[in-house]
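Figure caption, in words: inputs first, then the predicted bound structure.
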Amino acid sequence: MIELEGVTKRFPGGALAVDDLSLSAPERAITVLVGPSGCGKTTTLRMINRMVDPTSGTIRIDGTDIHEMDPAQLRRGIGYVIQHGGLFPHHTVERNVAAVPLLLGEKSRTAFDRARELLERVGMDPALGRRYPSQLSGGQQQRVGVARALAADPPVMLMDEPFSAVDPVVREQLQDEFLRLQGELGKTIVMVTHDIDEAIKLGDHVAVLRTGGVLAQMATPRDLLASPADGFVADFLGKDRGYRALGFDAEEYPVHEELTVVIGTPVGTAGGSADSDGWVLVTDEERHPLGWARPADAEDAVTREDLALGGTLATVDGPLRGALDAALSSPSRRGVVVDDDGLLVGTCLATEVLEVIESRDRQQAPSGARP
Ligand SMILES: Nc1ncnc2c1ncn2[C@@H]1O[C@H](COP(=O)(O)OP(=O)(O)OP(=O)(O)O)[C@@H](O)[C@H]1O
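Bound structure (adenosine-5'-triphosphate present):
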């Protein structure tokens, strides 16, 4: 557990970067610091590994005041990941990952073996280990940055905008893989971002800071969306709060059997007729959904050109937001539901998902409560 108690940082020249900040980052959880530019996020993070010293206040890790610890020893227990990976440009990728263990006196062979293992763990082809950082994409550099921070197996990780230097698609992938990795490793993580969506997706706890380094609210993402403390937090959370809150609710909703046809075969072979609207769901032979088709002639084989794409997929025990989105984005208005292996389970209807939400809300609302 990392605890900040009344921490203030005033830089020489007068800038008050962090003002009387108190918060706790629980063990084995991801705590995200989020807020507008200049609100003191990076300064706060750097005070935890003593790259910046607070003007006043106390920071403790597992009950020990970090100012009573030797800075080198402190940093050995803290992995640090920054934007663009912060890699040494003149070292190979493997050498970058092995850097800290080598510094700590690890045998070269052990350090490099572990570097290759870590690269694989963060989803990199180990063959890329012999390249130099400039020969990697932005997303790959970020992965190497994470691998390097993990190399000495520190219990604590500090991450400063680790996924912000890449495009939105790669960013989503990195976030998903990071969550999977954290599920295995269970590090105590403090992460900085200016992106509230990233904070809500990754954070077990989210601390919203306002300019001047003042804590506006610290809560779980669900509570933050449901009850922002004030107008600043509400504005910072932005629009679509009600809809985004559905991203946390993995609840059962009705799933219906759907008529399907295998790609390359005529709709007529589907063993029934398409729904009255004419849309039929096309799958591959293993029942992975491929898209919807509304062929003019049921005797013609369905081809990839016939597919109307764009619908999102919902996971059967996933959040209600996914189910609602699948239904609303589907050309047939029937949302495609798959299992964890991506195989078709059936379809769902927006009206029925909404019924689940409403009946749940009725059950949760205290009696006499008004919206
Ligand atoms: N070394 C420094 N000397 C003087 N002022 C500094 C220094 N580092 C940061 N500051 C100031 O402290 C305030 C907080 O900066 P910080 O980098 O912590 O904010 P941030 O929330 O991480 O911002 P961003 O999202 O833009 O990275 C800013 O006003 C900044 O100008």
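Residues 124 and 140 are 7 Å apart (CA to CA).
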